[in-house]
Each structure stands twice: as structure tokens, then as C-alpha cells.
Amino acid sequence: MTRAQTGHAVEVRDVWKSFDLVATRQRHLKQSLVDLLAGRREPRPRHAVLRGVDLSVARGETLGVVGRNGSGKSTLLRLLAGIYSPDRGSIETRGRVATLLELGAGFHMDLTGRENVEIEGIVLGLSRAEIHRRAAAVVEFADLGEYIDQPVRTYSTGMYMRLAFSVAVHVDPQILLVDEILSVGDAGFVARCHDRIREFQRQGASVVLVTHDTGAAEAWSDRVLWLDDGRVQSMGDPGEVVDTYLKAVEGG
Ligand SMILES: Nc1ncnc2c1ncn2[C@@H]1O[C@H](COP(=O)(O)OP(=O)(O)O)[C@@H](O)[C@H]1O
Ligand SMILES: [Mg+2]
Questions:
Q1: What is the whole-number distance in angstroms between the Cα of residue 210 and the centre of ligand 2?
Q2: Which of 155, 177, 186, 232 could bridge across to 160 with cysteines, CB 3.0–4.6 Å?
Q3: In CATH, what number does 8-35+43-96+172-250 get?
Q4: What does the pLDDT read at residue 128?
């Protein structure tokens, strides 16, 4: 496989994303009837979660993302993963993408862990023999014991993350998107996750790492992006960005 050594792995230009604000059912029903009788079609109120985000991630670069709760970090990652599409602007990713998103953003909850792993292989277009070889490796790394043949909905958060991480690392990603997962799970597994992410970094993969842990953001990232209320507040040297972010948070 040849990989270009220059250029961006991720390029985001002027991305906007809003969500419908869901009205309470009562208000919604009453208002709908009123609107119906009046022959009116009121636009639903919308909440702009990302407001003109620009960023790029170079090949081999790790970008840390910090910001208050609700600032749009997970939404940004879901856009990068292709789970959401932007209302405006463009997103380009170049290379195989693997994701480590929060609970519920990946697996079929009624299928077993093993079945989910096999489905991933089918989605990747692997042959039957490759699927079995890969599934064996994933299952071994996840180390879930008998739970690998139980429905995913019976998993604890830690177990879910083990499976998610195991699937992600076996995709051999060129772009790895990580949302707040390194704080979940037992110390041994977290250490293994760290080792594998370091390995991807050494192999030249790009990583986007969303984390509450500003220490980790500093330690892991080449640059840090501070997202505030859906806008890029600053992006650059990890120490400097984290310092200004922490000062802003402490200042209320
Ligand atoms: N699918 C959705 N529908 C409606 N609102 C959403 C949805 N996803 C996220 N939001 C809202 O977008 C805002 C940003 O959420 P999120 O991206 O999860 O922030 P963060 O990860 O930084 O805490 C929040 O106010 C959240 O309620
Ligand atoms: Mg989040």
C-alpha cells in the first residue's frame, strides 16, 4: 500500500449543523392543532450546534478537542464519521476511518458481540476466511469471555468499550476518531488502548481525540482545538490552548 506523505487527512470547511429542538409532547400536540386550524406551518425551533467550523488534520497528526459540555464536540466527531451530514460546508476525510464513539453509536444491541464483529467484516467487504480470522483476533483482544456470545445490550459500559476498541484497532485505520472513551474501563484495558493508539500514531495515522482530560489532550496531541458554543475558540499549541481554556472555565 502506498500512502501519500503530504496533504490533509481531514479537512473541514465552514461546517454548520443544527438540530430540531423537540417540544414537549403536550405543547407540541396543542401547538400542532392550533397551527392546523389556522392553516399555518410554523418552522420548528432549531438549535445551532456547530457554527462555521474550520479545521484540518494533517497525515500523522493528532488533534485534541476540548470544550465545555454541549459545545458540540461529539457532534463534530459524528460529522467526521459520516453519521451526520452538515447543513452547510464541507467535510473531507482521506483514508480508512475507524471510530470510538460513545455508547450506543456503533453496535446492533440485539446481536451478540461476535455477530457484530462479523457484520463489521462483511461491511468492510472481507472474504469469509478473512472475516473468521479477523473476528478471532478481535474477540481475543476484547477479552470478554462468555459475553462475546451474549447480546450487546447486556454489556456494561466497560465491556461495550472493550468491544468497540477491539473492532476499531483491527480496522487498521488511517484516521481514528476517539470520543471520551479513554476514561472508561479498567486500568489494564485503558493501558492497552493507549499502547495501540501510540502504535497508530507511529504508523502515521491521524487521530482526533475528544477528551475532558486536558492533561491527556496535552500529552497526546500535536495541536489542540478548543470548541466553544459550536465555534473554534482557538486551535494550536496544546499547552497554550489548554491554559486559555482552563482559565476561561475557571472564570465561569
Ligand atoms: N441528535 C440530536 N438532536 C438534538 N440535539 C442534539 C443532538 N445531538 C446533539 N444535540 C445537542 O447539541 C449540543 C451539543 O452536543 P454534543 O455535540 O454532544 O456536545 P459535547 O460532546 O461537546 O458535550 C447539545 O446541546 C445537545 O443537546
Ligand atoms: Mg460529547
A1: 8
A2: 155
A3: 3.40.50.300
A4: 87
